[in-house]
Amino acid sequence: MLVAQRNASRRRQQKGESFMDYSLLFIVLFLVGFGMVMVFSSSSYEANLKLGDSTKYLRQQLFASILGLVAMMVVANIPYHFWERFAVPAYIGSAVLILLIIPFGHSSGGATRWLYIGPLSLQVAEVAKLGMILFLSSLICKMGKRIRTNKGFMLVLAIPLPIALMIWQITNNLSSAIIVMAIAVLMLFVSCPDYKRFFFLGVITLAVAAAAVFYVVQTAQAHVDDLDFRGARVLAWLDPEAYSSDTGFQTLQALYAIGSGGVLGKGLGQSMQKRGFLPEAQNDMIFSIICEELGLFGGIAVIIMFLMLIWRLMIIANNASDLYGALLVVGVMGHIAVQVILNIAVVTNTIPNTGISLPFISYGGSSVMFLLIEIGITLSVAKGIRLKDL
Fold first, then answer.
1. Does 33 map to a domain?
2. Which end of the chain is more exposed for a tag (fewer CB within 10 A), N or C?
3. What share of the chain is helix, strand, coil (3-state, %, to 5)?
4. What does the DSSP assignment read for 269-336?
5. Measured between alpha carbons, how far is residue 275 from residues 127, 158, 245, 373 in Å?
6. What is the pTM of this model?
7. Separation between Cα atoms, residue 149 and residue 334, nearest integer Å
8. 166 and 235 both lie in a single domain
9. Could you read off the pLDDT of 324-339 as tens digits, one per residue?
10. Within 10 A of 302 (CB to CB), how many other CB atoms are there?
């Protein structure tokens, strides 16, 4: 009798226990650890040749990952509603940081996208992505049913547009601008049940993209010298072999790496393309090195890990205790999903080369740090879930 009473009491306590998604935590830790292995594998040759230190990129990535993991655990233990009061400052702060690129920006690889804060470099577009998630989550909650009106719908689409345009024009980073807008569209999609608007939005987007490609092709036939580097990338996407010595070189080398890997790959550390053939092997094109060294099996395994990550984020969003928490997780999910899709699409020449990193795996301190902070916010939302709700 006493045992039965104790068991009943324990069950009543468990109904109110908070939920901790260890599956999500494991997946993220695996991706970060795997990313450091691949950063070292893909960068050691170039780092030793140019810098005299084969572990240079690995040590920098390790330092950023440790900072990010610490920040993730701190943020995970802060109630997520704490961030609601920073919605407007996050939006304004993102705009200010982007504007600071003009007088204080640091250039690398032909683009000016970084600010130096002491010994640390900060890519402002990563701050803007997080700031947009915080701001739109708060805005959509405050709008309520008004978001279903045409005015409310267009307002949510218009809010991120200035930030996206600033990222595109000031930092010359079109891919991050696309991601900022994609985050807004996905958050709006789960908040507004009128899917006809999204159908028309998708049709308009495809029409604009098709018109842009048509314009580039027509301009190239008449005055090829009038094209900027993005137009040249479109031409290289359509026929990479015709531009194999210029804008199509990186894409072709990435495809060679993927093709030469076969099913099981050449073996970890045995890539040939990373040895001076494939530019930015540790950054945007790291997925091609994964495929070359670990084969089709390794590439699919990485995709499956990302699918599992998205699935866990969907579970948390569906069971969040309120709309604000759900929108935060949807924003994080949109950020990661769109970035993974774009990166793999670029590497496989499905879309023109936009220069975008693979989340948690590509080399880049700002990217991994802010992604881990976003995961910390997600874990905080998960802690607000009660086991009785699952």
1. yes
2. N
3. 75, 5, 20
4. T--STTTTTSTTTTTTTHHHHHHHHHHHHHHHHHHHHHHHHHHHHHHHHHH-SSHHHHHHHHHHHHHH
5. 33, 45, 17, 33
6. 0.90
7. 23
8. no
9. 999 999 999 999 999 9
10. 23
User: How many domains are contained in the chain?
Assistant: 2
Q: Is residue 212 part of a domain?
A: no
Say yes or no: 93 and 67 in one domain: no
- Residue 228 is predicted with a pLDDT of 67
CA distance 221 to 116: 43
Q: Is the pLDDT of residue 110 over 60?
A: yes
Out of 167, 193, 219, a domain closes at 193
* Best CA proximity match to 367, nearest among 298, 282, 251: 282
What's the one-letter identity of residue 20? Answer: M
* pLDDT of amino acid 185: 92
CB 190 within 8 A of CB 246: no
**What is the domain range of residue 96?**
78-193
- List, in sequence order, every beta strand (DSSP E) within the chain: 106-108, 111-117, 120-123
- Residue 363 carries which DSSP code? S
Q: Are residues 239 and 187 in the same domain?
A: no
* 63 confidence band (pLDDT: 50, 70, 90): very high
Evaluate if residue 290 carries a pLDDT over 70. yes
Q: What is the mean pLDDT of the chain?
A: 86
Q: Give, to the nearest 10 degrees, the angle between helix 56-76 and helix 22-51.
A: 160
